[in-house]
Structures are given as C-alpha cells and as structure tokens.
Design goal:
Elements lengths: L3 E2 L4 H6 L4 E2 L3 E6 L5 H14 L3 E6 L6 H8 L3 H4 L3 E4 L4 H14 L4 E7 L3 H6 L4 H25 L2 E6 L1 E6 L2 E6 L2 H7 L2 E7 L5 E8 L7 E8 L2 E4 L3
Parallel strand pairs: 3-7, 3-10, 4-5, 4-6, 6-7
Antiparallel strand pairs: 1-2, 8-9, 10-11, 11-12, 12-13
This protein binds adenosine-5'-triphosphate and magnesium ion.
C-alpha cells in the first residue's frame, strides 16, 4: 500500500487522491501569509501521527515549535521528535542540506519539506547573468536530487516557493520564482491565494502527471491550522 499523508483539508486531500503520496513532489506557492508554512507544519504533524519522520529544510527560519504545538494539540510532545529540522542560512548551506538528505533518509522518513526553496536563492540572484545561470542550475540539481530521493526512498516532498508578479495576456498574474525549474519537477502544484477575508484563502490544486483540471477550494486559517471553509 502506498503511503498517503493527509493534509488535514479534505478538499485538498480529495484533489490529491487521498493526500501527499510517496514518490510525489508537490509545489506550494502563494503570496505572503496565505498559509504555506501552516500547511507544511500540518502535513509534518499528520506524517508524525502515522509514525513517520519529516525532514524539514527551514530556509526561512519560520518553523516555530509554538505553531506546531497549536496544530498538534495534546500530542505535541510525542510528535515533536518526529520533525528533523535543518536551517540553512544561505544558498550554499541549502545546497549542503540537500546533499545531506541521503544521510538522514531511512525507512522511517515519510516526508521532506523545503520552506522556502527560493528565499535564499532570491537573495543571491539579481547580480550578473552568469551567477543567475549557475544558481538556476544548482536549483535544478537540488530538485532532481529530491525527485530521485522521493521515488527511490518512497517519501512525499512538499516544496514551497515564493511568487513574483508577471504580466500575462495584459493581466498581472503571480507565478513561483524560478517557475520553469520548479514546475518541471513538480507532479502537482497547490496555489494559495488571499481573499478579501484575511483568515480565508483559496487553494487551486493542479495535477500535472496525469494532467487534471484545476480544482479549487476555500480554506480557513485557524489556531489549529488550515481547514476546509464552506463559504
Ligand atoms: N494561531 C493562529 N491562529 C490563527 N491564525 C494564525 C495563527 N498563527 C498564524 N496565523 C495566521 O496564519 C497566516 C500566516 O500563515 P503562514 O505563516 O503559514 O503563511 P505563509 O504563506 O507561510 O507566509 P510567508 O509567505 O510569510 O512565509 C497569517 O495570516 C496569520 O495571521
Ligand atoms: Mg511561510
């Protein structure tokens, strides 16, 4: 039986065929404060409830135990040891963290989270084109490595990306930073978008392989995490 880690939002789980599946890379992107980190922590908590560990590459340094405690509730103390945190400070350290994944991986790892894969990369970019090319190539290498680990070690991967605004058909649309590289490796994307209510977001789930229509749902951000919201 394939491992499926529930996200905690049945609307998303339904679109994903039950949850985050082993061997699958899910790209989560969206503007600031749309619940990307909350979703990642929630998945790590659910993974821990299934008895599996999460390797959490926290590039933003925004994994707060207090937030995990709110989401995990009474089980926090027993679930916390199931999260292995890595906190790179620059893109070079992020590269090392990816290279070390194999040392941490084992039968008991069910999920790898990268939050946010492009934050340290973005700090480096903006210089000469040559440097940008090298960074892009390294990002591609990291994603290729992650894809291989996900498939061979049977773990699910949740990769979070920032967004940037681009003009498409005379409209401003948001896309993940380094769209081409990230979308190439992702099997599924979840786009979180703000609404007029600060505690409600929409989630559009798009499966690339096999290709499905985008499914959209409303989610509410609460103290205990993200949950389905019926408007
Ligand atoms: N305990 C809580 N109860 C209710 N809402 C909360 C709680 N903690 C955080 N939030 C809300 O969650 C949102 C931030 O969620 P989160 O950090 O997951 O977003 P994000 O998309 O990761 O943001 P960023 O792009 O800045 O990393 C904020 O709107 C905040 O008000
Ligand atoms: Mg975040």
């Amino acid at each position: 039986m394939k491992k499926l880690i529930p996200t905690g939002c049945s609307s998303i789980d339904e679109s994903l065929g039950g949850g985050l599946a082993e061997g699958v890379i899910i790209l989560v992107f969206g503007e600031a404060e749309t619940g990307k980190t909350t979703l990642a922590i929630q998945c790590a908590v659910n993974c821990a409830r299934m008895g599996y560990k999460t390797l959490f590459i926290d590039c933003n340094h925004t994994f707060f135990p207090k937030r995990m405690a709110q989401i995990a509730g009474d089980d926090f103390e027993s679930l916390a040891p199931h999260v292995i945190l890595m906190r790179p400070r620059d893109f070079k350290q992020q590269t090392l963290a990816f290279d070390e994944l194999n040392d941490f991986i084992g039968k008991k790892v069910g999920l790898i989270v990268v939050d946010t894969i492009t934050s340290l990369y973005s700090e480096n970019i903006g210089g000469e084109a040559k440097k940008g090319f090298a960074l892009n190539r390294e990002l591609n290498r990291q994603m290729a490595g992650l894809a291989q680990i996900s498939k061979t070690q049977k773990v699910a991967s949740l990769v979070i990306s920032q967004v940037r605004s681009v003009v498409f058909q005379e409209q401003a649309v948001v896309q993940p930073v380094a769209t081409r590289v990230l979308k190439f490796w992702a099997d599924t994307t979840i786009n979180l978008k703000p609404t007029s209510r600060s505690d409600v977001v929409t989630a559009s789930v798009e499966t690339h392989r096999p290709r499905h229509a985008v499914k959209k749902a409303f989610l509410k951000i609460e103290e205990k995490g993200l949950c389905d919201y019926k408007s």
